[in-house]
Predict the structure.
Amino acid sequence: MAIDMAQFHQVFFEESFEGLDAMESGLLNLDLGDVNADDINTIFRAAHSIKGGSGTFGFTSVSDFTHVMETLLDEMRDGRRQVTRPAVDVLLGSVDCLRDMLRAIQNGGEIDRTSVAEHKAALDGVVNGTHDMAREFPAESEHVGADTTMMTTMEEPAASEMQIVGWSIAFSPHLNLLKTGNDPVRMFRELAMLGELTSTVDMQGVPDIYDLDPEECHLSWKLKVLGDIASTEIDEVFDWVEDDCDLAKQAIYSAVAEPAPLAVTEQTQILKPASIEPITIPTVAQPTAAEKEPKKEESKTSASKASSSIRVDTGKIDTLINMVGELVITQSMLSLIGEHFELNKLDQLKNGLSQLERHTRELQESVMNIRMLPISFVFSRFPRLAHDISSKLGKKIELKLVGENTEVDKTVVELLSDPLVHLVRNSLDHGIEMPELRRAAGKPETGTVILKAYHRGGNIVIEVSDDGKGLDKDKLRAKAIEKGLIAEDAILSDKQCFELIFMPGFSTAEKLTDISGRGVGMDVVRRNIQALGGNIEIISELGKGSTMAIHLPLTLAILDGQSIAVGDETYILPLGSIIESLNIKEDRVNRVVGKGETFLLRGEYLPIIRIHEIFNVPKPKATKLTDGLLVVVEGQGIRCGLFIDDLLGQQQVVIKSLEANYRRVEGVSAATILGDGSVALILDIPGLVRLANQ
């Protein structure tokens, strides 16, 4: 009987991606020059496992590519070749290429054979000693559409003649490109800002007017842009549409008037031969931020889907099985009591129900514990990011990871990745200064970025800190006024100045780069973190550095809460945010006209927030401060007193997204369903403070 190997594919892909992460981490930690056999063996074993698995499942392109990597690693392992920076860079590029190949196979797409050929040639060059180390290895492969199988080799001039004076681009959008909200004209405008742009259009694919769908794109173009333009700047223009077009890019060198000829071994034409009408794209006015950013959500899909499985320690499984066994025993005991119930068995029934409650709670905690993953699943990508960006910018940066074993819910781990990438890139690009500037400021040449995770109460806190130049509040305020984001006479605190960076369209970058500078990113970061039920705060000192602190719930499913009553409404306060509750005396209250109320608690004045006023609760039982209760709470370092009618009781509540089922409400993080079927809102402490200040 034939065995269906497809059932094992998912496990192979997950193990392969873990192996690639291990290879990348090992390569970044290699000491140049002397060879550490254990480190090389770890990398070699990961490559060998991927090669063996891909060969078993018939993924020959992957096994062939990995075989060349093995050859180079084997020479390093045997001491026949020293570990050099260029060799490590080529291997890192090959790991990226291998990851793209596996993702393409996993998603049923076509492998980018041009990229594979380039990386394989680079590996062969290192093995044979013919690789030109002075030449920059391509950071990203060029995209070839799923219906295109084109392998090209470029006959390039000698190294001394390799001055790039422009780029030749073949751009063929798929029919659905316009439906994704993207417009080729906007891309041409951006190209025109980079250099002198000319274009020829192929109109052969345009159907008869009666068959024409105005929402489909039937045109394709040959573009030529001249100027001192980096490859990454071209890539950035087409970044959002790479999945919705066929794209080929080739450098124009100073030694030739036209691009070097392509030696095509196998080709499916991207542009159809036809009578082509030349068009010159004129220089246009600076497009708005909205025009410059194509719609990301629809046009660019994630290269890899979130993992549908999770690796669980056997100890957690054993604990879960034991808890199920205890639950079965308790259920059997209660069943026996119920079959022949008498009043003299009432104590047994109470004990049985108490035992059932305890076991249910422990079972729930065990199940939730299974979903907990170490934050290292997110942190592991950043050493490579720091390596690449520091090399690109010419900076010396040391990345330190602290608290990698801190556990957090799997869903939080998956959704946290993108916001953290933005924050770390900003620290590397904006925060850490160039070595000469650090020396002039009396700092060591090597800057430090610290990525730290730890638990605080019922939350996880993730901090991105750097010892760079810090945030200049005066510069931030001036830039915000210049962009019309705030009024010239606006009075802002230091914290409010720092939070200007979260405003859409805000950027202090002097020029646009592929790392930052477009004024998009930080507002998206805050939105994504708030969608997770968290918040972000900034601590910065000019000349000393900055810290971005993300506060998130440990899990998005269950919360330990305190029920409070306000009028006929019931609200839930996260138990970890409550410091104490007390009755207040009138002589401890201070009222400031137009500013609100404060009360004195152990030498500190804390603001009072009346919940019935914030949420317009009709007929509260207590309107005088002396008639109700004051609950002292803290969130993100902000302490305040919430004025309520009464405390009801503590309970675990199942979190339901309010934004998904209704809309986002300031001061409310989520909702839950109580035992009587009614809905209660879960309060967000920092949000309440912001709402009260308004």
Notes: The first strand starts at residue 151 and ends at 154. Residues 314-370 form one domain. The CA atoms of residues 139 and 535 lie 34 Å apart.
